[in-house]
UniProtKB/TrEMBL annotation:
GO terms for biological process: protein processing involved in protein targeting to mitochondrion; signal peptide processing. Pfam families: Peptidase_S26. This is Mitochondrial inner membrane protease subunit 2. It is found in: Mitochondrion inner membrane. It is a single-pass membrane protein. GO terms for molecular function: serine-type endopeptidase activity. The lineage of its organism: Eukaryota, Fungi, Dikarya, Ascomycota, Pezizomycotina.
Length: 197
């Protein structure tokens, strides 16, 4: 007489054991992928939720209606390479380095910018290795940008926003090259920075 016939409960536990053993190997199988996922999130791509009205109306166009947030793909590989006016970037806030901020590049190094409130000076020439960033919102009180912090060092830039992932009706590539420019910016060059280091 077998043990399974005498103790049917014991027989069911024996049948469960191979499945339990198989399930216990899944974390071990996934373990080698954890460093790759962390590396990808830190250095290749990241998903960013756009909070607040500072990039309205280009991002979060229905923010005033239902407080929905756009979800964007943040491309982090070589974030400081091939920057241009109109590009939407993510960077570490100068005031709170643990916070990631999303704004548009308005001016590059050497450009002369006519500032908005609360900037204390009427014009600023962007120094070398810096960019001037602003939110798209016309109300300067709804965005903390270079008018508050001054020009942003290139070393703080952590990525470029390339795609809108959600909501689905807005899914697609971000066409920053269609940005028409800002009338408050006079394009300059590094030669204009003779007094800056």
């Amino acid at each position: 007489m077998s043990i399974g016939r005498m103790f049917p409960h014991f027989n069911r536990k024996l049948q469960w054991r191979p499945t339990w053993r198989e399930l216990s190997f899944w974390p071990i199988r996934l373990l080698p992928w954890i460093p790759a996922i962390i590396f990808s999130n830190d250095h290749v791509i990241d998903v960013v939720w756009i909070n607040g009205p500072s990039m309205y109306p280009f991002l979060n166009p229905s923010f005033n209606e239902n407080l929905s947030k756009d979800v964007c793909l943040n491309y982090k590989w070589n974030p400081r390479k091939n920057l241009g006016r109109g590009m939407i970037i993510s960077y570490q806030s100068p005031a709170h380095p643990e916070v990631q901020v999303v704004k548009r590049i308005i001016a590059m190094e050497g450009d002369l910018v006519t500032t908005r409130a609360p900037c204390p000076v009427p014009t600023v020439r962007v120094p070398a290795n810096h960019v001037w960033v602003e939110g798209d919102n016309e109300d300067s009180g709804k965005t903390l940008d270079s008018n508050t912090f001054g020009p942003i060092p290139l070393n703080l830039i952590s990525g470029k926003l390339t795609y809108v992932l959600g909501p689905w009706k807005r899914f697609g590539r971000i066409h920053w090259e269609d940005y028409e420019g800002n009338s408050r910016v006079v394009k300059g060059s590094l030669d204009d920075l003779s007094g800056w280091d």
